[in-house]
Amino acid sequence: MKIGIVCYPTYGGSGVVATELGKALANEGHKVHFITYSQPTRLDFFSENIYYHKVDIRTYPLFEYPPYELALASKMVNIVQVEKLDLLHVHYAIPHASAAYMAKQILATKGIRIPVVTTLHGTDITLVGKDESYEPVVSFSINQSDGVTSVSHDLKRETYEHFDIQNDIEVIPNFIDLNRFKKQKKEHFKKAICPNDEKLIIHTSNFRKVKRVDDVVKVFCKVNKVVPSKLLLVGDGPERRRIEDLCMEMGIIEDVRFLGKLEAVEEVLSVGDLFMMPSEKESFGLAALEAMACEVPVISSNAGGIPELNVNGITGFTSEVGNVEEMAKNAIHIFTENRLPIFKENALKRAKEFDVTNILPVYEAHYEKVLDKVMNVV
Ligand code: GMT
C-alpha cells in the first residue's frame, strides 16, 4: 500500500507514534510518505520504503499568520497525485484532519478518490479541540474522515462526549518497539547517578502544565525522606525553570538532576526503578509505556487513558490527580519488602501486550476496511 502520513514532526507523543507507525509499515513493505513541515525527529535514517515531503509555507507581508493548513492541503493534493497514494493517515485532528478534507475534495474534482484516516491523540480533543475557536471544524473533519481511530477508550469516550460525532471510532492503542525499548546494561550510568545504590525515580515529559511536574517533585520529596533516592528529570519545556526553583525551595536540589531533551531515553530508563506520570490529562501515556518496556513500574494519576495501561497494584499504582500523599505512599510500598522485582516483571509483561507486532496488523486491517468502503461506493 502507498500511505501518506501527516503529523507534527516535533517531540510530541503524536508525532512519535506517527513516525514509529510509518517505520513499522515500511518494514512490512508498504511505501510510506511523510508529509510534514520538517523532518520528524525519529526519522533520521535511510529506508528504501520511506519518503519525506516537506510542506513549504510561503509567507507574504499581508499574512500576519501564514496559512499552514492551505500549504499542507496543497502538498497533500500534489503528493497523492504524483506518488499515486492509496490512503492518507493524519495524526492529530488540528489542522491535519481539516486539511485532509480539503485535499480530498480537490482531488475528487480530478476524479481521484483518496480515503482519509484520522487518529485522535489527546490534546486535539481534550484541550485545544473542544475550545469554541476550533470545535466546529474538529467535529466536521472527524465526521468527514473515512476512518477514525483513538489511542484509548477514554479518549473515544471524551470525543463522543464533547463533539457531535456520527462516525465510528476504533480504539487502536499506542505501541512500542521492544527491540529498541528494553532494559540495557548501563550499570556505570546508574553508579554515576546513584553512587550509594539509591533508588532512581524518573520523569520524562515536555514540562507543560498538564504534566504536573510539581507533583513529581512533591512526591519525590516525601519518598526521599524514607527511602534513599535520586530523581532524574528528562525533557524540557515551559515549566522547567519553575521546577528548578521548586527543587531549590524544597531543599532537594542535591538529589535531583535535570537532563534536558534526550534522544536515547531508553538508556536512562534502563537504570530506573520507578517512573512518575502524575498528569492532569493523558489520553494514553506513551512515556509510561516506554518506561514499562524498560522494566520500570509506574506511579501515575488515573487521568484519561492511563489506567488502560498502568494496572493499579500490578504494574505500579494509579491515584486521583494531585493526590501526592497516596502517590508517595505507593512508591514507598513498592520500594519496601523486596516488592520492586515483581513490579518490574509485571511492567515488562504488560508492555509486551503493546508490542508493535501486535498493533501494526490492527492498523493495516483498519486501512483495508476503509479502502474497501471508499472504493466500493458507486
Ligand atoms: O502529551 C503530550 O505532551 C504530547 C501529546 C501530543 O499531542 O503529541 O501527546 C498525546 O498523544 C500521545 C500519543 O498518542 C499520548 O501518549 C499522550 O497521552 C497524549 N497527551 C495528552 O493527552 C496530554
List keywords for this structure.
about 375 residues, alpha/beta, Rossmann fold, 2 domains, 14 helices, 13 strands, elongated, binds ligand GMT
What would you say about this model in short?
The protein is α/β, with parallel strands linked by helices. Helix content is 42%, strand content 16%.
- If you compute it from the alpha carbons, what radius of gyration comes out, rounded to the nearest whole angstrom? 22 Å
- What name does the CATH topology of the largest domain carry? Rossmann fold
Please state the second-level CATH architecture of the largest domain. Answer: 3-Layer(aba) Sandwich
Low-confidence residue ranges: none
Q: Which ligands accompany this protein? A: ligand GMT
How would you describe this structure to a colleague?
The chain is an alpha/beta fold and 378 residues long. It folds into 2 domains: 2-175 and 356-375, Glycogen Phosphorylase B (Rossmann fold), CATH 3.40.50.2000; 187-352, 3-Layer(aba) Sandwich (Rossmann fold). It is built from 14 helices and 13 strands. The strands form 2 sheets. The protein has a 7-stranded parallel sheet with strand order 3-2-1-4-5-6-7, sandwiched between helices. The relative contact order is 0.11. The model has no long low-confidence stretch (mean pLDDT 95). Residues 12-14, 17, 92, 121-123, 126, 151, 174, 206, 210, 281-286, 304 line the site of ligand GMT.
